[in-house]
Design brief:
This protein is an all-beta fold and 438 residues long. It folds into three domains: 152 residues, Jelly Rolls (Sandwich); 167 residues, Galactose-binding domain-like (Jelly Rolls, Sandwich), CATH 2.60.120; 59 residues, Immunoglobulins (Immunoglobulin-like, Sandwich), CATH 2.60.40.10. It is 2% helix and 48% strand.
């Protein structure tokens, strides 16, 4: 359950103060809120002894989904010292892609007019046990400009969403003379700043068809229908979009597609996009028809934006590279690919088939341009934390996808190379193969 802080008198007002850290904390119980906050708009629904999530069993909700409910925290609570920063925690169901749309935070320097907080950071923290496989803990935090006298936290109105979303569970405020605000990394924010790589050769991925109720459109991992110099992999993802599908998700055939994630245990890995580890998304595509191909990032802190890519169909594999520069510093769990964002608009009358493969992030902006052929005299495959090779080639080389040489090795029979997970290029003689280590 939550930690209860000592109460100390400040003038005629009682405040909840962390005695170890000089900050103001409100645990959003009915007593705490009614003592310290001014409630504006709708009325609040308190849950002081509810089931505990992330160690917290008390939170407040809107009484009505159609009415916004705001909580104003004024500097009078802790002795008329201006605010310097804040952390607000709310609970939201983990299937909400719009997890950051339920709270609005503003500040005031004159206790009358409000402005939105600049450079506020919003992150979702998830632990399956603490969240009971349902709730994420959303962290809103940021530094405030000079002279701020109060902040207003509003649970926004949304008639399409139940009144119990979100559950507002905690507020911490930093003020002049107390502890300085510094960014606090959420404890269950599992950012893995390593390369995202999925090639469907091993079961280290998740695939979810979105935009259809699986009536006649399909997604499945199949044998590569055409091995060539761009993609010689054995397994690829096949996507079939059927115009007779009677039950499009979101009632829109244009939005049909597939979400692809890299598994870490039973959950999709949360990956951070960085300049160092790579900001360029690469993927191979085999598709005969021209289309407007769509790509989105799902989950994490990446802001929603649909990337529309004019695509020219071909009977051969092509490699596509997308610059994710605007997402640097953000996180994601899945890439969402929509093969034809004009499928419904253009009233396509025949089924379209798209194959995807070799989806990875790299620091290289150009396509690999390296042949990906089957090695005829040697066998190369990836495993958990290792590359395996069988053959009599004499010498082989291993490269990263950016072209950096990892090492040269003598090959005479069987060879195991312990290596970090990712996509590697293995060159034996005149042949180069892409291999995934998971």
């Amino acid at each position: 359950m939550k930690k209860i802080f000592n109460l100390v008198a400040v003038g005629m007002v009682l405040a909840s103060v962390n005695v170890n850290a000089q900050t103001y904390v409100n645990e959003m119980t009915q007593a705490d809120v009614e003592r310290d906050c001014y409630i504006e708009g709708g009325s609040a629904l308190f849950n002081d002894a509810a089931d505990a999530y992330y160690g917290d069993g008390s939170y407040v909700q809107k009484s009505s989904a159609s009415t916004p409910t705001a909580f104003i925290f004024n500097r009078d609570i802790w002795g008329n010292k201006n605010l310097t920063g804040f952390i607000v925690n709310v609970l939201v169901p983990n299937d909400r892609m719009d997890f950051d749309q339920f709270i609005k935070i503003e500040y005031s320097t004159d206790e009358l007019n409000y402005q939105e907080v600049p450079d506020m950071k919003v992150e979702k923290s998830y632990d399956a046990v603490l969240g009971n496989n349902y709730w994420i803990d959303v962290w809103y935090q940021g530094a405030l400009p000079e002279g701020v006298k109060e902040i207003k936290v509003t649970m926004v109105a949304n008639e399409e969403v139940a009144n119990w979303i979100p559950c507002y569970r905690r507020t911490e405020i930093f003020y002049e003379g107390g502890d300085s605000y510094e960014y606090v990394k959420p404890p269950y924010l599992m950012i893995v700043p390593t390369e995202f790589s999925v090639d469907f050769e091993t079961e280290n991925y998740s695939i979810d068809m979105a935009g259809s109720q699986n009536a006649s459109s399909t997604i499945e991992v199949v044998d590569n229908p055409k091995k060539d110099a761009v993609n010689g992999s054995d397994k690829v993802l096949k996507i079939v979009q059927d115009p007779t599908d009677p039950n499009w998700g979101w009632d829109n055939a244009d939005w049909f597609g597939v979400a692809i994630g890299l598994l870490s245990g039973e959950e999709e890995q949360l990956t951070e996009i960085t300049e160092t580890d790579g900001r360029y998304l690469h993927f191979s595509i085999l598709r005969n028809e021209n289309s407007v191909f769509g790509m989105e990032t799902w989950g994490g802190t990446c802001s929603y934006k649909n990337q529309e890519i004019p695509f020219t169909g071909s009977e051969n594999w092509q490699e596509v590279v997308i610059d994710l520069e605007e997402y640097i510093g953000s996180t994601f769990k899945q890439f969402y690919f929509s093969p034809n964002e004009k499928f419904g608009t253009d009233n396509v009358a025949v089924a379209e088939t798209t194959y995807l493969d070799n989806i990875y992030i790299s620091d290289v902006a150009t396509s690999s341009g390296i042949a990906d052929n089957v090695v005829s005299t040697s066998k190369v495959w990836g495993g958990k934390g290792a590359l395996y090779v069988e053959g009599e080639a004499g010498e082989m080389s291993v490269y990263s996808v950016s072209g950096m040489e990892i090492g040269k090795y003598a090959l005479n029979g069987f060879l195991q190379i312990d290596i970090e997970r990712g996509i590697y290029l293995v060159k034996i003689g005149d042949t180069t193969s892409k291999i995934v280590v998971y």
